[in-house]
Amino acid sequence: xxxxxxxxxxxxxxxxxxxxxxxxxxxxxxxxxxxxxxxxxxxxxxxxxxxxxxxxxxxxxxxxxxxxxxxxxxxxxxxxxxxxxxxxxxxxxxxxxxxxxxxxxxxxxxxxxxxxxxxxxxxxxxxxxxxxxxxxxxxxxxxxxxxxxxxxxxxxxxxxxxxxxxxxxxxxxxxxxxxxxxxxxxxxxxxxxxxxxxxxxxxxxxxxxxxxxxxxxxxxxxxxxxxxxxxxxxxxxxxxxxxxxxxxxxxxxxxx
Length: 256
Hints:
By secondary structure, the chain is an alpha+beta fold. About 25% of the residues lie in helices and about 25% in strands. The chain folds into two domains: about 20-105, 2-Layer Sandwich (Gyrase A, domain 2), CATH 3.30.1360; about 115-255, Cyclophilin (Beta Barrel), CATH 2.40.100.10. It contains five helices and 15 strands. One of its GO terms (molecular function) is hydrolase activity.
């Protein structure tokens, strides 16, 4: 897929339409648009939940994983387990079954999303790029922080690394490019900003996002019942905290 254009308003794809394409012999990709806008992304999250429910209810057989992205969903399946009529290929049968679930889901109401408050200590050692990014955007650091935490945002997808959320779509004024030179080490919990999106690094990783703050929350823990703190479709609020509060929360080990 080409690089997605970020928009505030819905793209040209009607609500009830999607395309289904193979990605190898055991995965199908459901695509809902070519433009990243909030409405399309929320439809992706809604349809992904409906597909998961269909699997749990035994309506879809052979599904091994459902992976929502920004404007598409990857559905991994085992062809030998797909329910087929006589003479029907598994690919053909599975496409029909997916299409039936999506059509029914299109008329159902979306579930109320979870809302997660994310405490952030901005600037200083926690966000070493804050001042430079604010200056490049012709903002003060204080106004950048206010814009970053001034709206309810969506978890657009989780990917790149375990539990790594992409969050947006941010105010149009918060649109810096990524760093020209990525860092080889970025601390876990770091808040990155670029292209009207934020990310939260779940682990110490390399990365090229502008670092404007850090959260004491543990966004990925393989030993938790739910390892990923966030999932596609969740709502996020960034809440500014002081360094003292950050250190206190980190010592308490939040969240458990």
